[in-house]
Amino acid sequence: MNETVSWNNGPVPDERRSRADAPRFVPQGANPLLEAANPLLVMVSDIRRSARHADPAGLRAKLVAEIRQFELRAQAVPVANETILAARYCLCTTLDEAAALTPWGQAGVWSSHTLLVTFHNETWGGEKFFQLLDKLMQSPAAHLQLLELMYFCLALGFQGRYRVHEQGASQLETVRQRLYMSLRQYGQTVPAALSPHWRDNPAQKVGKPLPVPIWVAVCVALLLCLLMYLGTSLLLNRQSDRAFEDIVALRLPALQTQGQPPSSGVAPPAPLALAELLAPEVAEGLLTVRDQADRSVIILRGDGLFDSGADQIRAPLLPVIARIADAVEAAPGLVLVDGYTDNVPIRSVRFPSNFHLSQARADSVKAVLQERLSQPERVRAQGRADAAPVADNGTAQGRAQNRRVEITIVPLSKEAGQ
């Protein structure tokens, strides 16, 4: 391996050691390096599950001896010496982390005499493990045996530097999946067990692993719930549109009165004459004004005021609404903001119906008016959807006229205002 990561900090396997000293080792799998490391990998799982240990020092001595046996088994295959050295580093740091996470491994002999210190004169390998992995992934085809061993270290719970990262779990899962896909690409298969002989009773039935990770199933369930919610919301709003249309279509019967009603003695309000105050805006075609005896109505076309399907007022129209607020500031009374749409239904997550869109647009205009008025509580807003059309919705021009916001100013009579 042509690696920039140095592994020469500790003793290397002695190639001159007599291979007669090694126990007879016949690789049974496609990856002899993994087969040689199998006893150590099994011990990683055992260490993680042990809350207590009667003799941590004895366990450490046993692991030191087993690591030396691993070197002999790997040399007998043979495996390249540098690959054995890198694999030994990965196994040491994986075993050290497993022990460090146990109550008995956080103190005593293990905390000061780790396997990594013994074999590589280093105290922590959580960083270099992933540096090596990144380097090997640049040419995975040349290092499949070592990459598969590192995958098993990750599968057994090794986290290294990702244990202290804020998003370490998700980042580590990304690394693990990337390594898994790379191994699959080159035909490597991850066996269901690290060794075919580790079970006391091979015929014992065990539960099958889930076909998909639990987090994938949870995400799919949440997505289905979201789709059901959106579908139900759209259906309800479609039905509410029809109910709203029925309410708007209702006509109350005219009241039958006899003679003229008695005078209340309250003088009618004086006309506001907003058309004169807003004459420049009217001349530019930005709005129209209807001054009536008891009220004034300012009409803003929705196509100029908002983008299609949006409720944010376009920046060039903000000064116009501010000018309207200045014009009605001196006229005490109620300010009604009505939002209207055409009859073409809108179906979106934010605006499930035309009523929601018209209400949002009315609220946007209301907010700008309230910023300018000394009595912001005078302003009220309501959405009217496609009620009270002023033109034929059967044509594009008519629908454009129906998309509007009306600001109605109802002044108080002089006596009422006193």
In short:
The protein is of the alpha+beta class and 418 residues long. It is built from 16 helices and five strands.
Helix content: 40-55%
Approximate shape? elongated
- The proportion of residues in beta strands is 5-15%
What CATH first level of the largest domain would be assigned? Answer: Mainly Alpha
Biggest pleated-sheet summary: 5 strands, mixed
The beta-strand count equals 5
How many domains make up the coordinates?
2
Task: Record keyword descriptors for this entry.
alpha+beta; 60s Ribosomal Protein L30, Chain: A; disordered C terminus; 418 residues; Serine Threonine Protein Phosphatase 5, Tetratricopeptide repeat; 2 domains
Structure commentary:
The chain is α+β, with helices and mostly antiparallel strands. It has two domains: 19-198, Type IV / VI secretion system, DotU (Serine Threonine Protein Phosphatase 5, Tetratricopeptide repeat), CATH 1.25.40; 274-417, 2-Layer Sandwich (60s Ribosomal Protein L30, Chain: A). Helix content is 48%, strand content 7%. It has helices at residues 32-49, 56-76, 81-100, 109-112, 115-120, 128-136, 144-155, 168-185, 214-249, 274-277, 279-283, 302-305, 318-329, 354-372, 396-402, 414-417, and strands spanning 288-291, 296-301, 333-340, 379-383, 404-411. It has a five-stranded mixed sheet with strand order 1-2-5-3-4. α14 links the parallel β3 and β4. The chain is elongated and about 105 Å long.
Task: Outline the secondary-structure elements.
Layout: H1 32-49, H2 56-76, H3 81-100, H4 109-112, H5 115-120, H6 128-136, H7 144-155, H8 168-185, H9 214-249, H10 274-277, H11 279-283, E1 288-291, E2 296-301, H12 302-305, H13 318-329, E3 333-340, H14 354-372, E4 379-383, H15 396-402, E5 404-411, H16 414-417
Parallel strand pairs: 3-4
Antiparallel strand pairs: 1-2, 2-5, 3-5
